Structures are given as C-alpha cells and as structure tokens.
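Subject line: Sequence and fold of a protein, written as structure tokens
Body of memo: The sequence and its backbone structure tokens, given next.
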Amino acid sequence: MQLRVRDVLKNKDFTPVQILAIGYASIIFLGAVLLTLPISSKNGNATPFLDSLFTSTSAVCVTGLVTVDTGTYWSYFGKTIIMLLIQVGGLGFMAFATMLSLIAGKKITLRQRLIMQESMNSSSLQGIVKLAKYILLFTFSIEGLGALLLSTQFIPIFGPIKGIYYSVFHAVSAFCNAGFDLMGNYSSLIGYSGNVVIIITISALIVIGGLGFIVWNEIYTYKVRKRLSLHSKVVISMTTFLILGGTVLFFIFEYSNPGTMKAMGLKERLLSSLFASVSPRTAGFNSIDLSKLTVPSIFLMIILMFIGGSPGSTAGGIKTSTAGILYMTVKSIINGREDTEIFKKRVNKDIVYKSFAITIIALGVLFTVTVLLAITQSASGEPFESYVFEAASALGTVGSTLGLTQKLNSIGKIIIILTMYAGRVGALTLILAIAINKKKKNLSIKYPEDKILVG
C-alpha cells in the first residue's frame, strides 16, 4: 500500500522552519513546471527545465537574476506566472495560505500561527493573524498606488493595456524587491534614468518593501503609541544612513565615468546615484550600465547587497539591524563598554551572538560560492570581481549582475539556484537552530573561564 505525500507530511513532525523551507521549494518546483510549458514562452517552444527552475527560484526568492530575458523571452502567461511567484515569494506563502483560509472561512490553527510567526519574523505569537491581514492590505494598497503612478508614464509609451500590465508588474517586482523587469534586452531601467516619476516611484516601492511590515505598523500607530521600538529606530536609522551614504559615494565614484554618468546632467546624475544606492538593497533594478561601473562602485554595491534590507520585509541580505548591531558592538568595545548599547538601550547578548553568527555564516557562503564560480565558470572570461558580485547578488537576493548570469553553464546555474534559495531561507534556519540547541542544552553547566590572545 503506497502512502501519499500528503499523508507522510501530515504524520511527520516538521518544525516551522522545515515547513517553510519545504513550502518554498514546492512553490519553486511548481513554478518551474509551469514555466517549462510551451504556453509560457513567446516562441511557443518548451523551455529547458534548468532555465525554468532558475527563473522560478529567482522569482520566489525575489532575486531577479535571469538566464533568459524576461521581457522578450516569456509570453504574457509566463510573465504573469513570474509575477505571481514574485508576490508569493515576497510576502511568504504562509501569508497567502492565511488569506485563502480567511476567504474560505476556515479557522487558523495554532500550528499555522507558529509557522506564520516564523515566516513573518515576528517576536510574538499574539495578534499574528491580525498582522497577516495588515500585511496583505498594506501590500496590495502600496502596490496599487505604485502601479497607478507608473501608469502615468507607461500608458503614454506602451498604450493602455500594455501600459497598465507593465505598471502592475513593475510595482509588484519593486515592492517585493525582486528586480524583474519587462523592458527587454537586459536593459532594466537604463532608458528611463532621467524620468523622475519612474525612478522615484520604483525607489520608494523598494524602500517601503525593504523596511519591513512591523516597522510600518509602528509608524502607522505612532500617533497612538507615541513611541517606536528599538528595532524600528535601528532599521530606520541604518536605512537612512545607507541610502544617503550610498548616494553620495556613487555620485563621487561615477561622476566622471564616461560609461555611466559623465554625459548626464546634474538632475539625472543625482537620480542615478540615488537609484544605484537604493536598488542594491536587494531589488536588482539599474538605471546605469553596471558592467561599466568603476571598481569602487562595484565594491560599494557588494557591501550594500550583503547588508540588504530589514527583518520581516520582502528584502534579503544579513539585514540592516544585524549590521547595526555589529557596528554598535564594535563601538561599545572601543568605548570600553561591556554591553552593546543602542539609543540608550542595552542589547541582549543572545541577539549580538546571533548577529555575529549570521554574518560569519553569510561570509562563509559568499566565499564558498565565489570560489566555486571561479573554478567552474573560468571559461566565461569574466574578471574575479564578477564572481564575487554574482555570489553577493544571489545570496542577498538582489538580482544585479555584471554580465556573468547569461554566461553561466549548467553547473553555474545550479550553484546560483542553491545560493538564491539559501539566501531566502538560510537565516531563518540558523536562528531556529540556535534556539533549539539552546533549549536542549543544560544552561546551568558553566565551564572554567580561560584566556586566548586575539588581535
């Protein structure tokens, strides 16, 4: 007697993170199958499964790296599948499962609430269903507003039907920090670098999606509560610092670069610098040719991609709060403080340890993927920084590339697929693993203290 997969899953005691990992993998596989169908491609031919899997993984993991051009290769059916995968991946499949359960009038079980808590990176189980409703309402409202603003530019260019479709697609892609575009020939938004409405709207959607739903909920209720949590203060401060600092540095690095900004006017330079600072925070759009960036700009982009967005958002990376904790920990040590102090608050050491663990593991993955790409993609003829850039882009679920993605062989595609997947679910797995190990260990046992020379 054969057991169905559903029966096996029902009887197996999966942890919330394992369910999330399996859920994302299942959606990726389903998306790959749909994209393989002849109806998904513009030429009516079946797409090789590896390219379909790569595109589906990139969409669900809200990355944006593609081996085939999204605008010219896929049919409207394929593009719509990609847009739906981006939406599900950006919000988390549990948010959609909750929405379907609420529409069907079904009760949300405790187990579902626990999975939702893990998916949304929430610190409390209380009010988790209400938070899910808020996330869905907030997302569709912001994406709708973004699509409306973009339609004022795209409808005159592409006509009513195509203009509205392009507006909705790019609004979803930007808010979910995916970076997929329909402009064709891998050009992204280079042709619109001087369009204030398009650049500012896309930038705003990226930032709003990357701040995190918990932060926006606190901002929305600020008039009542009259306070922001330490988390929100750190996220807002780090986001502001990274955007402004990145804008200034990109403006300096690319000002006289003939391949990017030299021929631009001041307004277009400022717009391009701002967009170049915002987009690497896991979005993947670009309004200048990345393959012609100066080396300092490439290095800056790698740093921004590695940091990424904020917890509980549609963005990837090690997160702004993690980077903020690392910085303040170093500052506290230099100032002779025993604890990490931020805004006159003391940060729990467990959170500090988790921040260092996440960063070290991410650096290890970045190093490993870079080496693997350098070994397996040597025939591409790309410089070494392209491998580092590609690895950081996949791990941070960004989607930017210096041109290596389209040259990847089968092994390279598999490496990037696994890296994008790890970038989407890896941090959650790490955090839960730490929590489980802590519960299993007897914390009353303390070993003798000793010294090790460092530095």
